[in-house]
Amino acid sequence: MLIRDNIAVVMAARTGAPDAFFGRDGRLARALPGYEERPAQQRFAEAVERVLRDGGLLLAEAGTGTGKTLAYLLPAVGLGRRVVVSTGTKNLQEQLLTKDIPLLARALGRDLNVAVMKGRGNYLCRLRFRSFGEAGSFRRLDEIPLFRAVEGWAPRTETGDRSEIADLPDTVDFWREISASSENCIGQGCPEFDPCWVTRMRQRALEADLVVVNHHLLCADLAVRESSYGAVIPPYDTLILDEAHLLEDVATQYFGVHVSSHRVDDLARDVERELKAGRLDARDVRSELETVRHRSERLFKVLSTGHGRRLAPGWMSSHAAEEAQALLLRLEGLRTAILALPERPETLTALSGRAQALREELAFVLAAEDDGHVYFVETRGRGVFLRATPIDVSARLQELLFEGLRAGVLTSATLAVDGGFTYLKERLGLRPTEELLLASPFDYAEQAVLYVPRGMPDPMSPSFVERAAAEIVRLLALTRGRAFVLFTSYANMNAVAQRIAGEVPYPLLIQGEAPKPVLLDAFRSTPNAVLLATASFWQGVDVVGEQLSCVIIDKLPFASPGDPVVAARIDRLRSRGGNPFGDYQVPVAILMLKQGLGRLIRASTDRGVLAVLDSRLVQKAYGRRFLASLPGARLVHDMDEVRVFFNPEATATVTS
Ligand code: SF4
Fold first, then answer.
1. Among residues 574, 407, 417, 480, which one has the least CA distance to residue 49?
2. Residue to mutate (ligand 1; options 181, 193, 197; most atoms within 8 A of CB)
3. What are phi and psi of 367, to 5 degrees?
4. Cβ of 192 less than 6 Å from ligand 1
């Protein structure tokens, strides 16, 4: 009987009948105690099934709680051909693998053939690991015990994925020198090619029905597809992009070019190491290395004072131009010297290619001539970065990604602005065949109130922080802590943290005090905790239950026009006769606000208050666009109404 049922369900999935799966008495209900049927989930699954079967492009906003992950996974595993699923982050990949896919397999009663792929940098490169062991040197001696842990793990691992090593910090320096990367990999010429972790990962993906990647790997792959290094994701024509609202930012990051003082240093260290490992005398190469280092130091020192500066053709002073020219020449000298070595290993030949790529990219950024890019200098820590970032990624996404797809699905809980997808379609250059807007099944009118105080000072005014801090203290008293307070800047976060520290009798957790996962664990396990954080906590953070009963946002999250990429996009829209504020800045902020406020209600039993301390939301005409895009929580302006929401018995006090 069980076997017959399983066959029926697998067939149902293969032939496209999500109702047999998601229905009240369906397979999912039997696999998941407490299952609640959600019509929107089934509608979404049917739409995905249709587009995967017939081809086309589906855009779907599926509000929080729709159950969109299972809704797209079910048709994907029943398709009978390779489907790539891309999520926003590695954490979401992990969630798919440890939660949603096992549940789907359980409900279907069969194993699913799934492969996970992360960016190459997550995997140990056998060749570089060996050469580092023979000839590498540590930048930080306190990392030696961590390296010993890697040495203990390397012979045992089946995947080479660094996430298997407990307590290896993301920031550990030596990992860069032993991990795989497209620019260091020598591909089939590598003596370790067959047992290589990246080769094996790719092999597993070639054999899988479902390949789970993240947007970073997806875009990194698209960016290298045009170069000689090749892509790692196996060929695909069917793609499901979850958290699709992140795609433009990630593509912008990977389709751009950056040259930094770190990149030159890394190249020099790698060359030195390979010479040492190969016991090569190579005096010419060593002398070129010294000059490259010296010239790089001089050039980046000249540039280090220009943080945030936008570059245009002819931007360099004659002194900077002289230094730049010298470095370009020396990179070419290094390349030639390496290639002149009579018996050089493949790894050194690859490094000569890296020197050439670095020279070409440096020349491209310094010239600042391509009007499709915005060029600027950025300093971070001790590094100086020269960046060329594409202003508009739609044409390249179209050419590199969407044109090659037979079927695609772009989904997220926050994709729509003003009740439609015009903004997204323009930014990503999409021509969908079907669009779907699925509201959250949660009853926001019952589960939440949206508090927007009237008469707050303008967020730019000097008195804003003082007033915001006072509002936060009063709100936290009503909610007994249990809140996220999300800021649009570190400056506001720190200023408010200082002011409320002695006023709030609950544990305060502040971004920067510990890594993000540690802070989130502490928040979940500390009664009445309050977390103060900025942009990275606005999305991808999930706290179910009354531990999170309040989300406060200091101001509408407009991207700073001081950011060179934002400024260039504004200029571009204006020069084309558009309205940058209405067509770009407001939609970006609406999506961000939807994400931030979306942290609060994660289940049908969650209740709480959303607070936005920015009166522009109700005073400005554009505020209506924000309000219309938010879930339907009751809008209140009086703190007493928040009090009543948390304590209905208080009604009499308020109204008397
Ligand atoms: S094939 Fe590339 S990534 Fe793999 S071990 Fe060799 S060099 Fe490293």
1. 407
2. 193
3. -70, -35
4. yes
For the chain, where do the domains classified as CATH 3.40.50.300 start and end? 444-655
The pLDDT tens digits for 270-298 are 999 999 988 888 999 999 999 999 999 99
* Architecture of the domain made up of 444-655: 3-Layer(aba) Sandwich (3.40)
> Do residues 38 and 21 touch, judged by C-beta distance below 8 A?
no
* Span from the CA of 221 to the centroid of ligand 1 (angstroms): 16
Instruction: Fill in the amino acid letter for 374.
Output: V
Q: Whose CA is nearest to atom 4 of ligand 1?
A: 196
Atom of ligand 1 nearest to the CA of 196: 4
The answer to whether the CB of 428 is under 6 A from ligand 1 is no
Distances (CA, A) of 637 to 295, 455, 474, 566, 616: 60, 10, 14, 32, 13
Atom 8, ligand 1: residue with shortest CA distance: 125
Write the CA distances from 425 to 95, 238, 245, 428, 566, integer angstroms: 28, 19, 11, 5, 18
Quick one: how far is CA 130 from the chain centroid?
32
- Which residue is closest in CA terms to ligand 1's atom 2? 185
User: Would you say the CB of residue 198 lies under 6 angstroms from ligand 1?
Assistant: yes
Task: Tell me the C-alpha distance between 439 and 223, whole Å.
Answer: 35
Q: How far is CA 41 from CA 18, 57, 73, 126, 468, in A?
A: 9, 18, 11, 44, 39
Q: How far apart are the first and last CA of the chain?
A: 65
CA of 160 to the centre of ligand 1 (A): 12
Give 507-557 pLDDT, tens digit per residue.
999 998 888 888 999 999 999 999 999 988 888 788 888 899 999 999 999
pTM of the model: 0.89
- What CATH class is the domain 259-390? mainly alpha
Ligand 1 pocket check: which of 182, 192, 228 to mutate, most ligand atoms within 8 Å of Cβ?
192
Cα 572 to Cα 555: distance, rounded to the nearest angstrom:
26
Alpha carbons within 13 A on the beta-carbon side of 143: 17
Nearest-angstrom CA–CA distance, 504 and 608:
19
Quick check: CB of 126 below 6 Å from ligand 1? yes
